[in-house]
Amino acid sequence: MIRKRQPAQPETTWTRRGWVSAAAAGLVGSTLATPGGWAAEQAPVGTRASPLPLTEFEPKSMLHVTETHVPRARFPVIDFHTHVSPRPNARRPSVPPAELVRVMDTVNLHTMVNLTGGSGDQLRAALAAFDRAFPRRFLTMTEPTWTRASEAGYSTWQADEIKTAKTAGAVGLKVLKTLGLYLREGGPKGPLVHVDDARFDPMWEACGGLGLPVAMHVGDPEAFFLPIDRFNERYEELNAHPDWSFHGRDFPAFRDILTARDRVFARHPKTTFVALHVGHWAENLQAVGEMLDRFPNVNVEIGARIGELGRQPRTAARFFDRYQDRIMFGTDAVPLGIETPQQVFGEDLYRIYYRFLETEDEYFDYAPARVPPQGRWRIYGLGLTDQILRKVYHENAERILGVTLVGA
Ligand SMILES: [Zn+2]
Fold first, then answer.
1. CA-CA distance, 373 to 108, in Å (whole number)?
2. Chain CA centroid to CA 61, Å
3. Cα of 91 from ligand 1 centre, angstroms
4. Ligand 1 center from residue 81 Cα (angstroms)
5. Rounded to the nearest whole angstrom, what is the distance from the C-alpha of residue 303 to the centroid of ligand 1?
6. Most buried in the list 27, 162, 209, 290, measured by CB within 10 Å?
7. Cα of 27 to ligand 1 centre, how many Å?
8. Quick one: pLDDT at residue 162?
9. What pTM value is reported for the model?
10. Which residues surround ligand 1, an ion (CB under 5 A)?
11. HEC string of 276-304?
């Protein structure tokens, strides 16, 4: 409740800055300048006496800076990281591909790579409804059948399944964070299966032999492996979704997961990997750069990480310059959903990414949301050159997928 009080001085609005400078100038007795002391007693009109819950804080930026609207990408775009085909037991309904194409045409999005095409009948249905119904607009990847991972003979069976999927039309293999964080030996009570478990070696090798890139999501934001406390920069998100936390219990440490993943990269140099979400360490581009230097068979994409890249614009611009042949555009787009607004497919989502990559605008929202959903900060545009934009928007993806899409 706001209680009206007499102003400290008639006709004077006391701001915090005014109070601090008055205190510094000796106008106010120092004994009064204590929390809950004079300042609280004399709270000026229009302020709250009680603390403001973080969830209610929606500061409007007072910066008067350039706002560039980028309705269409400067060059045709391949979104390397989307999830658009129907999933079994999915909580959210899928959107008919014709509706997706309408939005794609509006924002100059040429192709969506649909990573989670599943396997077997699910994969064949996705390929028919998306890839074949709309040639060159959708490409679909297959996924391992984790439910059989503890069965005898799984290794060779799974490698053969990759061949079958390629014949059906799949353009790559997608690995969700299931591997390393959910998949357990023999059922839900068993130990976690390690990312570099040897039973998957034939699968990684098969991908290399067949020319299928592996899109790999291993780990999650670094903060998801830390305690959910007031020091955690993703506190609000984790507090709302405690099941997203991988802190404690028998979860591996963040760095151990990445190290296990790196052993897979090293063991399969002829297989092309795409480490999604900026190699899962957008918070540490120095480390991602060192990883890319060590493994020429690895590339990255930027899905759902412009909130990280855009708050370190100078480091990120250097990263794009140095690794311009190995970074791909991606959004992690899903057709519907309110829990992760930074991923909801639509014109607004793409326009934010384009603004980030193409302009030098300052301090703008990284997601179409009332409150920044992955942390209360804003981002700065990179203003990439045309040469880098072409590579990131479509040339790198075409090379890695081994297809010509744009202008074919
Ligand atoms: Zn994804």
1. 26
2. 24
3. 15
4. 6
5. 7
6. 162
7. 58
8. 98
9. 0.87
10. 332
11. HHHHCCCCCHHHHHHHHHHCCCEEEECCC
Q: Residue count of the chain, please give it.
A: 408
> How high is the pLDDT of residue 45?
59
CA distances from 137 to 79, 111, 173, 397 (A): 10, 4, 18, 13
Q: Are 253 and 279 in contact (CB under 8 A)?
A: no
Give the pairing type, strands 214-216 and 298-301: unpaired
Question: What is the reported pLDDT for 46?
Answer: 62
| Other CB atoms within 10 A of residue 132 CB | 12
Identity at 34, one-letter amino acid code: T
Quick one: three-class SS letters along the chain? CCCCCCCCCCCCCCCHHHHHHHHHCCCCCHHHCCCCCHHHHCCCCCCCCCCCCHHHCCCCCCCCCCCCCCCCCCCCEEEEEECCCCCCCCCCCCCCHHHHHHHHHHHCEEEEEECCCCCHHHHHHHHHHHHHCCCCCEEECECCCHHHCCCCCHHHHHHHHHHHHHHHCCCCEEECCHHHHCCECCCCCCCECCCCCHHHHHHHHHHHHHCCCEEECCCCCHHHHCCCCCCCCCHHHHHHCHHHCCCCCCCCCHHHHHHHHHHHHHHCCCCCEEEHHHHCCCCCHHHHHHHHHHCCCEEEECCCCHHHHCCCHHHHHHHHHHCCCCEECCCCEECCCCCCHHHECCHHHHHHHHHHHHCCCCCECCCCCCCCCCCCCCECCCCCCHHHHHHHHHHHHHHHHCCCCCCC
Query: What is d(CA 104, CA 331) in angstroms, rounded to the nearest whole number?
Result: 13
Q: 38 alpha carbon to ligand 1 midpoint, in Å?
A: 52
Query: What separation, in Å, do the N-terminal and C-terminal C-alpha atoms of the chain show?
Result: 64
CA of 92 to the centre of ligand 1 (A): 15
Region of residue 278 (left: phi > 0; alpha: psi -120 to 50; beta: else): left
- Listed as ranges, residues in the chain with pLDDT below 70 are 1-48, 91-92, 338
Query: 129: which residues sit within 8 A by CB, 6+ positions away?
Result: 85, 97
171: tokens are: 């353009």
Structure tokens at 35: 């929390």
